[in-house]
């Protein structure tokens, strides 16, 4: 019998099973289910958003139908919740088990594999067929929270070196500026460039899709593992589809997370025939341009200082009534928690 585990006593038993399986219990989930043999809990699994996690089966029930029953129930629940595609991160040795349950492998590195149910990647790529172009193609992946002259400098530099430049705007809304606004600001800011093609990343590039660490060992570098999975997915599935052979990034001397991501790209992309080109960050009299500095200036209400850091299109939006809620949030944030000097939080956290 399969049932949702809602009582503390039920979840305590599930936690014991998860930890006995060598996994770490995480208390962030939308639903937890259990499979019972009579009154004994023999398997458990959870869903957090579109991620399936903490799947554990007692040793005597492994190799049977328990995992399939759990996953089927979680997939049904996820679809009912509105998720067309569902993802699972697992140890590489267990990837085959999920493939037998109709999960498609997206990326794999030494300690983790990422698989998807629902063929979302295939559907997303098919929806972009009209953007395919022959020639020397490259890519930049940007969050643009908001779009700055630094982003524009990177894009213009890359566009000059290519026949076509694909600009992937991170779709996930974990930024002060919502995706629709970020996308619009990029679109307006690059209209003068005839060889750029703008698209969103859906769930497949630098997604914050909560990277669960329940299956990792305590000393495993979780951020590094997710970075590698993200780069491998881009290099093996996305870049070949668009004919991308160069990826451009801005230099990052201050933020260890973004700097680490740049290093991972330099290490992994060449094996897939993709060159990483690092463009030195654009400087002003006050230092390197960053979206975090722009947000700080807006928080201070110092619009006079913004002109050197952002295009006219971004400034026009920030001064418009449509940006009132964003201005207020940044002003509140600045009053309550002044930004840390040198921090660049434009890159989405890889958690």
Tell me what the structure shows.
The protein has helices spanning 8-20, 66-80, 95-99, 120-126, 149-160, 179-189, 222-242, 256-268, 291-300, 312-319, 324-336, and strands at residues 2-4, 31-37, 40-48, 51-57, 86-90, 103-108, 113-117, 137-142, 164-169, 196-200, 244-250, 275-279, 283-284, 287-288. It has 351 residues and is of the alpha/beta class. It has two domains: 2-118, Gcn5-related N-acetyltransferase (GNAT) (Aminopeptidase, 3-Layer(aba) Sandwich); 121-351, Rossmann fold. The chain has a seven-stranded mixed sheet with strand order 1-2-3-4-5-7-6, with helices on both faces. A five-stranded parallel sheet has the order 10-9-8-11-12. It is globular. The two termini are 34 Å apart. Residues 341-351 have low confidence and may be disordered.
Give a brief rundown of this model.
With 351 residues, this protein is an alpha/beta fold. Helices cover 36% and strands 21% of the residues.
Helix and strand run: EHEEEHEHEEHEHEHEHEHEEEHHH
Task: Report the major sheet.
Answer: 7 strands, mixed
CATH architecture of the largest domain: 3-Layer(aba) Sandwich
CATH class of the largest domain: Alpha Beta
Q: What amount of the residues lies in strands?
A: 15-25%
User: Within the largest sheet, what's the order of strands?
Assistant: 1-2-3-4-5-7-6
SS field, number of helical segments: 11
By DSSP, the count of extended strands is 14
In whole angstroms, the N-to-C terminal distance is 34 Å
């Amino acid at each position: 019998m399969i049932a949702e585990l809602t009582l503390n006593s039920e979840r305590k038993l599930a936690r014991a099973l998860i930890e006995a399986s060598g996994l770490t219990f995480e208390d962030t989930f939308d639903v937890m289910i259990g499979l019972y043999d009579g009154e004994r809990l023999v398997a458990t699994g959870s869903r957090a958003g579109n991620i399936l996690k903490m799947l554990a089966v007692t040793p005597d029930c492994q190799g049977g139908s328990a995992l399939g029953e759990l996953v089927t129930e979680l997939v049904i629940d996820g679809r009912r919740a509105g998720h067309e595609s569902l993802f699972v991160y697992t140890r590489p040795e267990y990837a085959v088990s999920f493939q037998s349950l109709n999960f498609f492998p997206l990326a794999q590195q030494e300690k983790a594999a990422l698989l998807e149910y629902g063929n979302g990647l295939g559907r997303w790529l098919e929806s972009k067929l009209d953007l395919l172009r022959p020639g020397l193609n490259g890519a930049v992946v940007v969050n643009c929270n908001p779009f700055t002259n630094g982003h524009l400098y990177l894009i213009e530099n890359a566009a000059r070196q290519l026949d076509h430049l694909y600009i992937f705007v991170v779709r996930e809304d974990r930024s002060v500026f919502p995706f629709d606004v970020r996308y619009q600001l990029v679109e307006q800011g690059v209209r003068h460039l005839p060889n750029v093609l703008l698209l969103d990343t859906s769930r497949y590039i630098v997604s914050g899709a909560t990277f669960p660490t329940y299956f990792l060992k305590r000393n495993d570098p979780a951020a590094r593992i997710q970075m590698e999975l993200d780069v491998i997915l881009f290099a093996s599935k996305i870049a070949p589809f668009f004919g991308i052979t160069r990826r451009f990034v801005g230099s990052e001397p201050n933020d260890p997370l973004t700097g680490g991501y740049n290093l991972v790209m330099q290490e992994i992309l060449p094996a897939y025939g993709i060159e990483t080109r690092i463009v030195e960050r654009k400087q002003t009299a006050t230092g390197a341009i960053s979206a975090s500095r722009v947000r700080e200036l807006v928080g201070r209400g110092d619009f006079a200082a913004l002109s050197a850091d952002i295009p006219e299109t971004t400034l026009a939006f920030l001064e418009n009534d449509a940006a009132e809620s964003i201005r207020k949030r940044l002003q509140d944030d600045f009053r309550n928690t002044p930004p840390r000097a040198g921090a660049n939080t434009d890159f989405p956290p890889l958690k």
